[in-house]
User: Fold this.
Amino acid sequence: MSDDVVNLRRERKRRQRDAAKTAAAENRVQFGRTRSERDETQKAKDRDDARHEAHKRDRTS
Assistant:
């Protein structure tokens, strides 16, 4: 009997914490952009859209 005794409640909680840490790491990768990065990307997209719209021909004749 050289096996260690394992507290099942502690082991269950440890596994839940590990799963939460893994999920948090995945979310940081997926959603981890700052507000300024998102704003900068949106401004660049708006600028590109405006340039594109400015070069369109008017077909309302």
